[in-house]
Design goal:
single chain; about 450 residues; alpha+beta; elongated
């Protein structure tokens, strides 16, 4: 064996070892995240069955002014709760949604804002404990109310991101995503065709070899989807998300800044909800609108998109509370490249682009499950009775990676703090295993 061949063999043994550790760490969490993610992507169909009586109404000749629906919702809401925002009907058969926040309600981690205190970017979530009152826009009849946390989509999101627990449990999904990224990178390296190899599964392959070929092929075939899912998942994680946002800001990819201190000029009567809706519709693209009322006499109205399935129609609008004059507007063209990527990637991650998106995510989830199961099948087929079953490391394996490989590893650890911490613990374990192996050989 020449030096180049032996170097490749040492690297392969190391990547295989790391791939094994990544699978061992990530598998339990990845299994839960995949199963809960598959459940989440069917949110539109499930909610259509559960909330038909709340979300939709029978169209009639004409709608009442929006203020009538808001007033009816205020009478039905708990005393002392304040209107957080209103989503008027975009289609003729849609109900008015009026969201209420409790006094001093804390914002949910996905909310993006916490009350009437001037959000500076689109706010798609609601404060904790918020409720939504649904009103028929034609007769102002209250159809019912639902706690935001109890709506299936929000419940499934919380199940997927933190197993229905508090924020202290979110580290598990972040740890899994970090090591799944390692699994993906090392898996691609191990699969990469060399020489006459094609990388495609061979017809008639059986046993562990057949499992290995399909395991590698499916993992790589859906690699792009894997990168999108893992990256977008990490953007809203606690530790890695903070690093990614800091890198975004340093690189000049922060969202367009909203001017601070925008105020309304108190001239004439203030706009009511119907007036504000008309102003928003005259400036916004053809998409459902979310309206937030001024918090004080000199504050401004705010409008943004209420539907993330059309990211190119994203907009932010602030206008005078008396004259309706636009004071700030930012559409899709004002977003940075990072903003556009996340505006597309996050809804894709959640399956919000329609049936094709859901079908692709279902296929992705099924391939992840197959990869997890096939990986452990291969492990038990390879593992000798009485042994740990760790992939064998060739001498000098840890010094064999190229400078580029070490640079990629350093970058991943810098962006994913949980990977750095858990990787450090793993290195200590590897040192312990190496010392135990040397003592065992010395005693023979």
């Amino acid at each position: 064996m020449d030096d180049a061949t032996f170097l490749l063999a040492r690297r392969k043994s190391l990547y295989w070892r790391i791939h094994f550790w990544a699978a061992l760490i990530a598998s339990p969490f990845a299994l839960v995240a995949t199963l809960t993610g598959i459940l989440y992507i069917f949110t539109p169909q499930i909610e259509a069955r559960l909330y038909q009586h709340l979300d939709h109404v029978a169209p009639q000749a004409s709608m009442l002014p929006l203020d009538a629906a808001v007033a009816a919702a205020e009478r039905a809401a708990p005393r002392g709760w304040t209107v957080q925002h209103v989503v008027p009907p975009f289609q003729q058969d849609e109900a008015v949604q009026v969201a209420f926040a409790p006094p001093g309600g804390a914002p949910d981690e996905h909310a993006g804002h916490g009350g009437h205190a001037a959000p500076v970017k689109p706010a798609f979530g609601l404060p904790a404990q918020a409720i939504v009152v649904y009103v028929n826009p034609y007769d102002a009849r209250v159809l019912g109310s639902l706690a935001s946390s109890e709506r299936f989509g929000n419940w499934a999101k919380k199940l997927h991101s933190r197993l229905l627990q508090n924020d202290g449990w979110r580290w598990m999904i972040e740890l899994a995503a970090s090591w799944l990224m390692v699994m993906l990178v090392t898996g691609v390296v191990l699969w990469w065709p060399r020489g006459a190899q094609s990388g495609l599964p061979k017809r008639g392959a059986r046993g562990r070899n057949g499992w290995r070929q399909w395991h590698a092929f499916l993992g790589v075939a859906l690699g792009i989807v894997s990168v999108v899912i893992l990256t977008t998942g990490l953007t809203w994680s606690q530790q890695a998300g903070g690093r990614i946002r800091a890198l975004r800001d340093v690189s000049g990819q922060a969202p367009p800044p909203v001017p601070r201190g925008l105020h309304s000029r108190e001239e004439g009567a203030p706009l009511d909800w119907q007036d504000a809706w008309q102003v928003a519709r005259s400036h916004a693209p053809a998409i459902a609108v979310q309206l937030t009322a001024p918090a004080s006499q000199d504050d401004v109205w705010r409008a943004t998109m209420a539907d993330r399935s059309q990211p190119t129609l994203r907009f932010d609008l602030q206008f005078d509370a008396y004259s309706g004059k636009p004071l700030y507007y930012a559409g899709w063209e004002a977003q940075t490249a990072f903003g556009k990527a996340t505006a597309i990637g996050i809804p894709f991650h959640r399956g919000e682009f329609g049936w094709w998106n859901q079908a692709l995510l279902l296929l992705f989830g099924a391939s992840v499950l197959f990869s997890l199961v096939s990986g452990w099948v291969m492990f038990f087929k390879r593992r000798l009775p009485g042994s740990l079953g760790l992939p064998k490391l060739l001498p000098g394996a840890w010094t064999s990676p190229s400078a580029l490989a070490w640079l990629v590893a350093a970058g991943m650890c810098a962006l994913m703090p949980l990977l750095l911490v858990s990787g450090g613990l793993l290195m200590l374990l590897e040192l312990g295993l190496a010392r135990a192996s040397r003592r065992r050989w010395a005693g023979r």
